Amino acid sequence: MSLPNAPVERIIRKAGAERVSESAVEELKQALEEAAEEISQEASKMADHAGRNTVTREDIEISTQ
């Protein structure tokens, strides 16, 4: 999975940064992708435990708490 740079840079700018280095964008992308993968794995386990093949919004919500 690879997130596009522009939205990641917008996240950093929205947090208050005036300027953002390419390495900062790459580092945040990596952190976001790792977090998303962990959340997705937990959500998939939730769906499996419930006997479903489909991951739902609720599975994601529970996995982020």
TrEMBL record:
Biased composition (Basic and acidic residues): 45-65
Region (Disordered): 41-65
Any Pfam family: CBFD_NFYB_HMF
Annotated InterPro entries: Archaeal_histone_HMF, CBFA_NFYB_domain, Histone-fold, HmfB-like
Keywords in alphabetical order: Chromosome, Cytoplasm, DNA-binding
Domain Transcription factor CBF/NF-Y/archaeal histone: 1-61
Keyword Flavoprotein: no
UniProt key word DNA-binding: yes
Cellular compartment(s): Chromosome; Cytoplasm
Protein name as catalogued: Histones H3 and H4
Protein species of origin: Candidatus Nanohalococcus occultus
Gene this chain is encoded by: hht1-4
